[in-house]
Every structure is written in structure tokens, then in C-alpha cells.
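Q: Convert this sequence to C-alpha cells.
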Amino acid sequence: MSKSPHSPEFRAMVSKEYLDGLGSYEYLAVKHFYEAKEWSINWMCKQLGITRTGYYKWLHRDIPVQEQENQKLAELIKEYDERFCHILGYRRMASWLNHFNHTCYSPKRVHRIMKKLNIHAVIRKKKNKYNASTPETKCQ
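A:
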């Protein structure tokens, strides 16, 4: 088993940007690093301040229908965000999702999931509709 680095580095790797899932980030981090790098579950639970029994209870739980639906919606949101080049905000995202998939997701639900995934619209800079003039042309 490879020994893990110091805890600040471990906590930095467990940031929201590194994990793109929904749910408890600490439990997802423990699961990921145990499977990928074979780090000690006991050590990671101590570093993150969670109990080992809580982790195992989370690991063997039945995933609720609402959470499965949210995960499916998150995949759709990621797909549409890439397809439309990051220009859709949560209102237009909800509108497009409902239109193309024949669903009825509320904008609040889409907004909440987009915040968890750290997806937001890219605001384009408005172009000027006038020609810039020099001071010499103004005086004449």
C-alpha cells in the first residue's frame, strides 16, 4: 500500500473541482482514493473527520430514486453544457432540457445541480456600436 502525503495536500485533492459527483464529498473522496491509490480507509476517515462506520453505512446504502434522478440530470447538464459551449445559464438550461427530453425539471432544481457541478454561463462582453474617435477629429 502506498502511503499518502500530508493532510493539507490530501484535503486539496478532495476539492469540489476534483470530484464531480453529487452527494457527500468526503465519502466519495475516501472511496475514490481507496480504489485508485489503495490508501488506508481508517487514515482517510480520521483526516476528514468522519467515522469509519459512517463511511461503510454510506457505501452499502440503497441509493434513493431522487438521487438517481439527480445523477441522471447531472449527466444531461454536463452534456448540454459541452454541446452549447458553456453559454447556457440555469434558466435556458432548464428550458432546453425540458424541451428536448420531454421532461419537467424546475429551474431551481437545475440551478442547484449546476452549482454543485460548478457550471455557469460564460457572459459575453457587449460590443460597442460606435467608432472610436481620436481627439484631433473632435476638435475640427
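The helical segments are 7-13, 25-37, 41-48, 52-59, 65-83, 90-101, 107-117, 135-139.
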